[in-house]
Model the fold of this input.
Amino acid sequence: MRDVAIISFAQTQHRRAVRELNEVEMLMPVLVDVVAKAGITKDRIDFVCSGSADYLAGMAFSFVMTLDGVGPWPPISESHVDMDGAWALYEAWVKMQMGDVDVALVYSYGKSSPGNLRRVLTRQLDPYYLAPMWPDPVSLAALQARAALDAGVVTETEMAEVVAASRRAALSNPSAQLRGEVEASSLLSEEYFVAPLRRHDCPPISDGAAAVILAADDVARQLCERPAWIRGIDHRIEPHSLGVRDLTRSVSTEQAATHAGVDKDKIDLAELHAPFSHQEVILRRALGLGDEVAVNPSGGALAANPIMAAGLIRLGEAATRITCGAADRAVAHATSGPCLQQNLVCVLEGE
Amino acid sequence: MPELILPARLQGIEQVRSFRAPARLDYQFTAGLATTRFLRAVAEKRLVGQRCPKCQKVYVPPRGACPTDGVPTEEEVELAHSGTVTTFCVVNVQFYGQVMELPYVSALILLDGSDIPIMHLIQEVPYDQVHMGMRVEAVWVPDDELGPTLESIKYFRPNGEPDADWETYKDNV
Amino acid sequence: MAEPDVLVAPSTIEYPFRRTTGPVIGAFLTALREGFLVGIKSSDGKVIVPPVEYDPYTADALTEIVEVGDAGEVTAWSWVAEPLDGQPLDRPFAFALIKLDGADTAMLHVVDTGGDPAAIATGMRVRARWKPPRPVGASEEDDATGAHRVGSILDIECFVPEGEN
Done:
């Protein structure tokens, strides 16, 4: 296996609606930033991989337009996944294992503001049994929360504490959309949105983009004083049908964590892609994280949730803390699909 | 696929083989800064592109980035209303939403001063006389009908100049 | 931040899809059109509702369609106080996972409690409220109105607390 590291990370300041910019305009400053932070020029990049969703943009093959941001002429080596950028990073990592790519750019972006996000995301569901009822992601996550509450896996107080911790952590994250000092007890006094979820248990709707630069072996050591090495990365998926899954556990996260080697050594911090508060509790348990692990020092997806980028941002945030020396070993997680259907786990280490 | 074993009540009746699954999604598209500036200029009967600071190419309509260099394009460049047909096609097929009389010519037109052709219609000339290198000019709608849309240009028509030299547009075909 | 001065245009995308079902989903939708529910036996003999073509654990092709009840137990629910466009009911309702009698897995549908969020609970019994049967000689346009059963998950209007219909 080749050693591959995240050496640079950049993201937008996420907002509810970035109306003044189209996708490529929103993405461009992030691409310029991530390349500059890596201390390279674009011609050093051997491979580009991106993640986005056409349904968000309401345009078929919309990702082709954002390619202008990376300069695809003369033609470049490129790939795209209709997934969160974390899976684009996985593809780039696999490609780098094959040996002929030393530096890769991974980016992803999502503008949810042009459409009605809750309606748009119903289109990712089974078209026969589910999509005709337009079950939106908040309603489905609420079903999962109900199942977890009934099973005693989580309490409403714990959910509110997750939110309060996220808001507080986000105070030091300039990219976050929601931040502030708020007490769990006052959150609990708010009304239900889609019961048992209150509005704050749900992620904000965000427009935003993120990018990372990956580098292999000595190239990474040359370009970065303290690369965040990917020591393990794996992703697993569960059946789509909610009725055949145990919604109170994340078995796919448990498996991915084992394959990524999460339990091989002590974890300093975790960046978990838990768009809904109860999911953070389920994920902590699946990853076996104790109270000593700092979870979501960035505020996580409850502080900003640009669809298709929020998972990649977890990897970037975790890597940044290793690069700056604040942590030695971190776990980053990304999710996709309704109720944590698919999960990616990545272990990052400094040297 | 192996045969299904059906309960008695499902045997001997017509099976459902398909169903309607219509969906409708509404969006509000934002043009973004570059395209907004371009379309606002069109409403003033002007064509404005953007120049790449690196390769100096001028893009129209501008998208805010150079597809070759992947750098932001900020410098605006006023373009002529005339250009050269780099390639074209004769449309003989009716399709949904079409308002044109058949046959008609759709062409790529390299506006003078730009480095990427735009697509528009060629009229006021028999369709079988349109050719590569033909010099054309924009015919705008009346001033009181101008708006932030490329429909503010009704079409392009021959402007009477001699054909452009192949060398002037060979990189844009 | 001030609202930026950019052009915005509405755009509507319509997907006028007609989907083919294959025999397994076809059997489920045929049963719905006839006013009953079926599942499929998994490799280990469990009844999966709605039926799937392949076993979720072993990927074996499944073949045995079996009838299940049109009433069952709510295993999880969420309360939708403000329904979105397209959702089956336009008044407050619950999305629920319902384990039908004779089934080993739960299926997603909606429960109508007359708008009362206190009238739903995990473990409660609910029963399907069916749309009327398809009239003889109904046209494609008639089918598109949604007024009667056609072979769709929406042939069940909703579930209601047992004893209410």
Notes: The two ends of chain B are 50 Å apart (CA to CA). The beta strands of chain B are 18-30, 47-51, 58-59, 75-79, 82-91, 104-111, 118-122, 135-140, 153-158. Residues 2 and 157 of chain B are 64 Å apart (CA to CA). The first strand of chain B starts at residue 18 and ends at 30.
